[in-house]
Specification:
Layout (H helix, E strand, L loop, with lengths): L1 H27 L3 H26 L5 H4 L7 E4 L14 H23 L3 E5 L11 H15 L8 E4 L2 H4 L9 H11 L5 E4 L2 E4 L1
Parallel strand pairs: 1-2, 2-3
Antiparallel strand pairs: 4-5
Length: 202
């Protein structure tokens, strides 16, 4: 009997605790706190959606020019520098996720607007390409692919390495293995591309 009474008392205390918590939550979401919550949601909506759409609708109209058969449309992505895993401290995971999300979102918007025949990346694909181990470089490449959908459109991507990827500014040009590793993932560093009587040399 005493065990039964103890169980009832425990359930009653738990119910009271939940009731007090619910009451506090209701008070928190009422009055000025509700206003702060609405303002916060509105700010997120503006920054994560409205600003992008506003910029998109203010871009110049290129449809008429693009209708000409002789026109080749290029989308140039300069210096994406995917954030590495070594220099970002304890918040590195959050920083990488947020930066990757931003890159993916803006790239998709630009790509849907231009509808390019070619996409050119002008070097410094990774921020820590020089110091990355082979496993880290592989993870960086997988992130690059998930952001820019590289593997499904590889024949229309021209990837130019930068000094952060294969060296050249300080010491990397003395390490052929860096260029070989980059080539294994992104193809030849020096190559000639053809389309519609137009040649692209990287």
């Amino acid at each position: 009997m005493s065990r039964f009474n103890a169980s009832l008392n425990y359930r009653f205390d738990s119910f009271c605790a939940r009731s007090r918590l619910c009451s506090k939550c209701r008070r928190w979401f009422s009055g000025r706190y509700r206003v702060l919550l609405i303002i916060g949601i509105f700010i997120i909506l503006i920054n994560e959606f409205l600003f992008y759409q506003w910029a998109y609708f203010n871009w110049s109209n290129i449809d008429e020019l693009a209708k000409k058969s002789s026109v080749e449309k290029l989308l140039i992505a300069a210096d994406p520098q995917l954030i590495g895993e070594k220099d970002e401290g304890i918040f590195g995971f959050i920083t990488r996720k947020e930066a990757d999300r931003y890159l993916a979102k803006t790239f998709l918007q630009a790509k849907s607007y231009v509808k390019p025949d070619w996409i050119v990346f002008l070097g410094d694909i990774f921020d820590e390409g020089l110091s990355a181990s082979d496993d880290e470089f592989k993870r960086y490449f997988e992130r690059f692919n998930s952001i820019f959908d590289y593997k499904n459109h590889e024949q229309h991507y021209i990837i130019i390495p930068g000094d952060n990827d294969v060296g050249g500014e300080y010491y990397g040009d003395k390490q052929p293995l860096l260029r070989k590793r980059f080539r294994n993932y992104f193809g030849r560093i020096i190559a000639l591309y053809h389309q519609n009587d137009i040649q692209f040399l990287k």
